[in-house]
Amino acid sequence: MNLVGNLFGSSIGRKILMAVTGLVLIGFVVGHLVGNLQIFSHPDKINGYAHFLHSLGPVLWIARIGLLVCVVIHIWAATVLTLESRRARGDQPYGVKTWIQATFASRYMRWTGFVVLAFIVYHLAHFTLGVVQGSTFKETLPAYTMTGDYRVLGLTVVEAGTPVLDVYTMVVRGFQIPLVAVFYIIAVGLLSFHLLHGMDSLFQTFGWRNARWARPLRTVVTITCVSYFVLNAAIPGSVLVGRLTPSAAAVARH
């Protein structure tokens, strides 16, 4: 069998696929968070960031399709491995310790995965497509004008004076709805829990976790996932307490 056949046709290959796609998706969610945290700075930052991403055109769509492929492969590998595990176990009952481990490391992992998938679909509909608030939601936003340059790696990618979409206000308005903000926080919490066990399994798949490094790696993973949750939750939380408000351009329009 060739390399692709080995990856998709064997349990070890599927575990590798699951780990590699998981690593790609971890990189995406971390990068996504870093970009979103710019909302705590001047509106120029996140508005310029969003405009730059959309200006990439085909490159952005290639990245989106690549991420979608990773999600599909990740879910497929997880499902097949779960079914294989059940067939191998047969009707043999779990011991108490094994059942507890399966609940948190396997069964709960699958359910959080489905919730996270639903959250991703909703998140895209909410902020990328704007269909949750209505088809005209983006059209009602003011045309924000950049007051300064937006730079990436020291290079100016969006110049001052450029009219852009007011993503800053779009995010704030979205999270001013308490139900949306609470749902986001809960979903991010489940995603963080999913990452906790996913990253731990990733280290095991790649052979990086052993008796010596198991505890330190778990500590690093735990701190990373808790930090990820806190930083993500800080965005809707700040909107709910009034720390983040619509941009001056949006206020002036109303």
If you had to describe this structure to a student in words, what would you say it looks like?
This protein has helices at 3-9, 11-36, 43-55, 58-89, 96-128, 167-175, 178-205, 214-240, 248-253, and strands spanning 143-145, 150-152, 155-158, 163-165. It has 254 residues and is mainly α. The longest helix is centred in the middle third of the chain and has 33 residues, at 96-128. It has nine helices and four strands. The protein has a single domain, classed as 3 helical TM bundles of succinate and fumarate reductases (Up-down Bundle). The protein is globular and about 60 Å long.
What are its keywords?
3 helical TM bundles of succinate and fumarate reductases, two-stranded antiparallel ribbon, mainly alpha, 254 residues, globular, 4 strands
In short:
The protein has 254 residues and is mainly alpha-helical.
